[in-house]
Amino acid sequence: MLYFLLFLLGVSTSYWEERDFSECEFRGLGISRDGVVILSHGVDSLLETSDMYLWDILYTCGALYVASGDDGRVYRIKEGDGELFFDSGEENVLTLAEHNSYIYAGTSPGGKVYKIDEEGRGEELFDSDEEFIWDLVIKPDGRIIFGTGGNGLVIALGDDRVDTLLYTGRSNASLLK
Questions:
Q1: What separation in angstroms does the CA of 17 have from each of 11, 14, 23, 37, 51?
Q2: pLDDT-above-90 percentage for the chain
Q3: Where residue 21 falls among pLDDT bands split at 50, 70, 90?
Q4: Of 92, 134, 155, 177, whose CB has the highest number of CB atoms within 10 Å?
């Protein structure tokens, strides 16, 4: 009995000390939001840019195209190398689409649609009265359908015609791709 009593008295409570890992550099590890340290997947950087936002990513023609904001650029990542592909001169390139080896880009705040060739040379196809071109879809016949911000319109561009397909009654219109 005395042995049992000594055994009970020998037990004490232990506390784990919380540590600040903010100054640590982790390689192959991650910390969950609950503070659990776990093995992580490897991460490789494909593109380094000073742009504040990446709005859209398009994979086509053997390359990855990235639409950026703050400087309104499109980057191309091909065979592991990232490069500036097109500079719109706008603040944001919000959306990308591809048709017949051309990349199409919708911008803000100018609400423009650009057609970009394989060499990164862009041609302004349309300058809308809208502030944003949120989404672009290219129909098989080459017509460009896009959703806008400002007046929330869905517009079709093709065959030297511009048709407003839908007035949403909202500020913004997005398309399902």
A1: 19, 10, 17, 15, 40
A2: 64
A3: low
A4: 92
CB-based burial of residue 84 (10 Å sphere; 0-12 exposed, 13-18 middle, 19+ buried)?
Answer: middle
Amino acid at 33: R
**Element at 37 (helix H, strand E):** strand 37-39
Q: In Å, how far from its chain's centre is CA 154? A: 22
Please give the structure tokens belonging to residue 51: 């742009």
Flag whether pLDDT at 1 surpasses 80. Answer: no
- The DSSP secondary-structure symbol of 9 reads H
53-167: what fold?
Neuraminidase (2.120.10)
Please give the helix or strand (H or E) that residue 3 lies within, else none.
helix 2-9
pTM: 0.76
Contact yes or no for 146/175 (Cβ under 8 A)? yes
Phi-psi region of 95 (alpha: psi -120 to 50; beta: other; left: phi over 0): beta
Side-chain half-sphere CA neighbours of 170 within 13 A: 9
